[in-house]
Amino acid sequence: MKPTHLKLILVWSLLIAFAGLLPSQEKPDAGQSPDKIVPKDNKLDIEYDKSRDRTNIQLRDDYALEIKPGSLASLKFNIYYHCSGQDAGCRPYTVLFSFVAGSSKWVFEKSNRELILLLDNQRVSLGQMDWDGSTSQDSSNANMIEQMTVYVPTSTFERVLRAKTVEGQIGSTTFKVDPSDLVGMRELFKFPPEPPDQKQQGTMKPH
């Protein structure tokens, strides 16, 4: 074998050995989704719905506000809204207020369901709420479950968050929101300022 050929073989051997020491670079999986993971707050459910290309936000069920229910056995309050795409920090056009009442009989099915709030003693009417009912096998006195929902402009929700005291009335049933719950809600729900040409972001119905 000629010396020139021997030198070429040695050079190629060194190059191959050196290449084996370099870190490998795998090609991205063609089937891998480019969607980023939406972070979860420990008191909020924040989930990206890929089929609808939107991010749904709500209070976790175990953190829904248990407000003083007046004559009812229980009354829980939750907030729902969604943002387009994978953005959990948008300013929605409306949010959905959801009240779930438990009692031993139907209270709101055929009655007036106008939601009235007293924000620092200033009256705000939010209109009639939609109604849905179900029964529970619970042996307690709260086996009739009624859910009432109403869409509220985000600016009105912000008025609720700014208030020092919040009382309310659904039909003839009155309730109060604990001031400590208001403090917690202010920390959880912070929206960007409303731009003059704001596009309407939708609001989801509760699951």
Structural write-up:
The structure is a single chain. With 207 residues, the protein is α+β, with helices and mostly antiparallel strands. The chain has a domain at 65-77 and 98-188. Helices cover 18% and strands 36% of the residues. The protein is built from three helices and eleven strands. It has helices at 3-21, 154-162, 179-188; strands at residues 44-49, 54-59, 65-66, 74-84, 94-103, 114-119, 122-128, 130-135, 144-153, 166-170, 173-177. The strands form two sheets. Strands 1, 2, 3, 4, 5, 8 and 9 form a seven-stranded antiparallel β-sheet that branches. Strands 7-6-10-11 form a four-stranded antiparallel β-sheet. Strand 3 and strand 4 form a beta hairpin. The longest helix has 19 residues, at 3-21. The chain is globular. The model is unreliable at 5-40 (pLDDT under 50).
Task: Classify the secondary structure makeup into a structural class.
Answer: alpha+beta
Helix percentage range: 10-25%
- What is Rg? 28 Å
Order of helices and strands: HEEEEEEEEEHEEH
- Mean pLDDT, all residues: 79
Are there runs of 5+ residues with pLDDT below 50, and where? 5-40
Beta-strand portion reads 35-45%
Largest sheet: 7 strands, antiparallel
Distance between the termini: 79 Å
Shape: globular
Number of strands: 11
Tally of DSSP helical segments: 3
